[in-house]
Amino acid sequence: MKEYAIEYGKVNTPALKARLMDLSDYKKAHEKLIILCHDVFIQYRGGILLVKRLNFPAKDMWWPLGGRIKRGMEVKDSLREKVWGEAGLKLSHLTEWGYARTLFKTDPFGHGKGTDTLNLVYFAKGRGSLSVDNLHEKPTIITPKRYKLIRKKLHPYVKDFMDKAIPLIEDA
To answer: What is the CATH number of the domain that holds 43?
Structure first.
């Protein structure tokens, strides 16, 4: 994916960055808009890292790290920052894999309209000491052998991209 910043000459520019929305404003946006996110399937210590989410949507599901894209940052830089904050890992060999839309009946705010996200999906190698934040638990390295046991239990979004990631581990 190419990113263009015509007026500024580069994508990372202070003029485009903004503080996070007030929670009340974000709740309204979440109810009415598609949320643009980025997720990454991370090769780490012989497998692919998945975590259990502690909040809606996808609460209690195995999921890759990621989340909303930060305004005014290149997507890859935003994702690197997100993964560092969520798990203390640095990413290398960050490769774009495509995009997917996830639709959930649940939402984190109780507005009853569910969650609608468009996700830019990446693959990367992770390094560092893994330590997840308070929005995730049970960081687990999914090896090819373990994947065969849990594949049917995964959300279709996660399963589709894990099907692409696991062969890379088998060849590593």
So the answer is: 3.90.79.10
